């Protein structure tokens, strides 16, 4: 995993071989091809399914935008913007379930105890159901959320640079 130095970081999470779970990585792939690749002060990184390694990727940042597949009970392709502080404050009540074994909320709760956390925004794309088959394909319904997620990320970045 790359060491990141920029104050603003966009991190995509997911598994590229678990279908819809890879939607966060698809967003990162598109962002790396677009105008963001030239911006100074911004890192765009495929974080895979890094778990506790996320804490290293937060270190030294001012703002981190996390893009991931979520299960929140909304229609597939829906996009949710969630403040990291809201995840920590409402960890028991927020209807957000990561599709990974260790949720982003779990990692942030640990991170809060061991380091100073930057501003964190999660852009979650609803996948509708847990990925169970090995495939690189993202369903059309879930893929519809990619453009909206990118628009939200552009807004976050423009307000932070």
What attributes characterize this protein structure?
Rossmann fold; single chain; six-stranded mixed β-sheet
> What do we call the CATH topology?
Rossmann fold
Task: State the secondary-structure class.
Answer: alpha/beta
How many domains is the backbone divided into? 1
| CATH domain class name | Alpha Beta
CATH superfamily, by name, is HybD-like
- The CATH architecture can be named as 3-Layer(aba) Sandwich
Distance between the termini: 24 Å
Determine the oligomeric state from the structure. single chain
Q: Low-confidence runs (pLDDT<50, min 5 residues)?
A: 93-97
Main sheet overview:
6 strands, mixed
Q: H/E element string?
A: EHEHEEHEHEH
Descriptive overview:
This protein has 5 helices and 6 strands, in the order E-H-E-H-E-E-H-E-H-E-H. The chain is an alpha/beta fold and 161 residues long. Strands 1, 2, 3, 4, 5 and 6 form a 6-stranded mixed sheet that branches. Strand 1 (8-13), helix 1 and strand 2 (42-48) form a beta-alpha-beta unit. The longest helix is centred in the last third of the chain and has 19 residues, at 140-158. It is globular and about 35 Å long. Mean pLDDT is 86; it is low at 93-97. Its EC number is 3.4.24.-. Keywords: Hydrolase, Protease.
